[in-house]
Amino acid sequence: MAKPGNLTSSTFNIINMNNHIPDEPLALFGGTFDPVHYGHLRCADEARQKLNLHQLYLLPAGNPVHRATPQASAGQRLEMLQLAQTEFPSLAIDSRELRRGGPSYMVDTLQELRSEFPHRSVLLLVGQDAANRLHTWYQWEQLFSLTNLVILTRPGEAADYRHDLARQIQTRLVTQVEELAGSEHGCVLQLQVSPIDISATTIQSVMRLGRSPKSMLPAAVMDYIDDNRLYLPV
Length: 234
Ligand code: ATP
Prior knowledge:
The protein is an alpha/beta fold. The protein has a single domain (about 10-225), classed as Rossmann fold (3-Layer(aba) Sandwich), CATH 3.40.50. The protein contains nine helices and seven strands, in the order E-H-E-H-E-H-H-E-H-E-H-E-H-E-H-H. Helix 2 runs antiparallel to helix 9 (about 220-225). It is globular, with a radius of gyration of 17 Å.
């Protein structure tokens, strides 16, 4: 029996021609998911519905570049996503960044997907806080030639872009979901989702205080955190 959190023990829903809904835009929601919570899951699923999609891919980062090393291992973060999936069956998982090794650059991931799906509309979903920091991503300007961008509202986060990023976003803004489906890349849509004031940082802080964050994430994920003694005070 493989150890929990061991990447080789897991099954993967990697995006490919066989499991992707034909002709539907390819929608990705990247994150550290340390741990996955209802802020990610409900917002992603609401966005999926508003974008008229059957499926949306959660894309866990292996080695996030602009933040501290995740507390849970790559395999543990993947297993928590798989447990969350039972409550959100329309959210699939693409684990390529966990398997790739090295820094997790979104441009590399998008380039890989582009070579697999050269003429598909690609949608990259990011929360407003992540959008505000987009200019810090490796080769960020290239993102617009690889994907469309869907920026999700997040409580406490107003749009606040560096001037060159603001210019890119302004010139690419569209207001209708249909405009995205017709565009392979290069458009930006601001999408309103119901406010859910949960973050992984809050969950980690609550755990450190010895309290339970159980209303913030699926019960199966909470059980996994307890069973594997994750996020406990050091
Ligand atoms: P942390 O507190 O460590 O920053 P996080 O809760 O923001 O973690 P991440 O995995 O870093 O989670 O986020 C992945 C993506 O999900 C980002 O684009 C982020 O903006 C978005 N996101 C996370 N929580 C929410 C939320 N409550 N509402 C909207 N978007 C969210």
